[in-house]
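Newbie here. two chains, one complex. Structure please?
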Amino acid sequence: MQQLINGISLGSVYALIALGYTMVYGIIRLINFAHGEVFMVGAFAGFFAITEFGLSFWPALAAAMVFCALLGMLMERLAYKPLRNAHRVAALMTAVGLSMLLMNGAIAIDWIGASPKGFPQVIEIKKFRLMENVVVSTDQILTLAVALFLMMLLQFIVHRTMMGKAMRAVSQDKDAARLMGINVDKTISFTFALGSALAAAAGVLFALNYGVVMFNMGMMPGLKAFVSAVLGGIGIIPGAMVGGMLLGVTETAVSAAGYSMLRDAIAFVFLILILLVRPAGLFGKNVREKV
Amino acid sequence: MAKRLCLLLLKAAAILVPAYLLQMLIDSRSINPYYAHVMIVMSIFVILSVSLNLVVGITGQFSLGHAGFMAIGAYAAAILTKNPGLVLPDFITGYPLFILATLAGGILAAAAGLLVGLPTLRLRGDYLAIATLGFGEIVRILLLNWPFVGGASGYFGIQRFTSFFWAFLFAAVTVLLIRNFINSSHGRACISIREDEIAAETMGIPTTRYKVIAFVIGAFFAGIAGSLMAHLNRMLIPASFSFMLSVEVLLMVVLGGLGSISGSIGASVFLTFASEALRQFRELRVIVYALLLIAIMLFRPKGLLGNQELSLSLLKKASLTAVARFRRRQKDAASTTPAD
């Protein structure tokens, strides 16, 4: 029971990152390897907003989200847009290059550096005892609440606004969408901004839960979030949420069972299994490829 | 028949003689030991980049796990040479043991490649990239937690077997084998998959099988390179087989040209040299590498050489056109001067 709560809290962070992967993949069929690094930048943006500018938690979260949304749009504009019609491997390699650049760029920047930094306790941590030995802390509740709120907001944007309609149209058929007068470039840019903002929120929440920020913190959560996205069916928004939760819960269950060393391996076992059994993901439909 | 045999012997001599001569120069200290070391590392990176080029450049599948396969080969071979009699009979010692262990390391890496490749290569799209990236991380984590090979502190006391002669020999054999593979009908099938997978399948090419074959061959040679590295440095640390190593090899492939074997060789030599020269600026080096990777992809997505091979005939053609251009210019100059 305790592990379930910890797992859901971790899983909601994975789910938030996975949403970015899934939206970007859905719209331009690209695995954005640099997404994990956006998560890291988001955590640092939150960190600096709190320590340098003295903001409290909520404004810092918002600042980090805005900063990363801009970063995401910039990345798309400079690195991915010129390659939109190029070979797929070229775009993937650029993504790997961007990821390396952000990660090592962070080390090179003096006030980030290579050593981990303590994330300030900006909210008061209270623990609630639910049952005999089940404890929930405020940061866990906050994480879950923020994640759920953002997911609901995302659902609203995607299904109830004009921009969301444009996103869905572009992901179905880019050329047809363009013929219908949709500004495809703007829509893709918006998708990157949205995904990056979610990653930034995840970064701040993750940092709050674990109390540290570090230059390479984006790598593992980034990979696992991708696995979550594949698990739920890549390109499908509710799939990413369920996949993230499932992975988070399994992971904490495995480490609670005493195999904490294998915790990081679980995600990849999941990946191989899902690719073997149901490559389209839990919520996916099999789509026949057209020429 | 006799002619073919003669040609084969000639080719063998063309590899063995320079390798032997250079080794003699190294042994007699005419070549400084530091440079000798760099030359061996270059040969190892040639093996790595050429084998990765088969996967990424020729078959068009994006693999990020080369360091993982290298680690498997390195540790497997090191275990075999360190414990003679554990798997192989213990009367095999010295160089035969080294060669057998290296091959065993390659085979084990290839088996791991099969394990990762089979489920992921069935699918279209980019699953291989993530699966191989994850695979590399799993290998590293498992090695970190395996006390038998020393865990995080490293695996020590491996005998030194890798000399320039052996490294060069393995590199040359790798290049020859992969070149022959590419020029065979199997290689053509792989290229057709890179160009258009759906069209290739329509033409009756079993795409999954060829993707797996290319991937497994790539993993095999990565394992070989790992064994050479283990018996060069005489110690292994899991941290040295990180994601960065895979990216470094990938950069060599991209810089040389996707699909160009000679390009990969040139880029490996150049980048190994550059890494040594920039050793003191470690972090900056990685940033430069990342920028280089992005810049090449943006401005020349096929790599510097593209899929062309640098060969004598290409040089001849280039020099002939240069000469022709020079002559034409002279003629033009001669015909315009009287008019002035």
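Moderator note: The two ends of chain A are 50 Å apart (CA to CA). Chain A touches chain B through 43 residues (CB under 8 Å). Thread marked as resolved.
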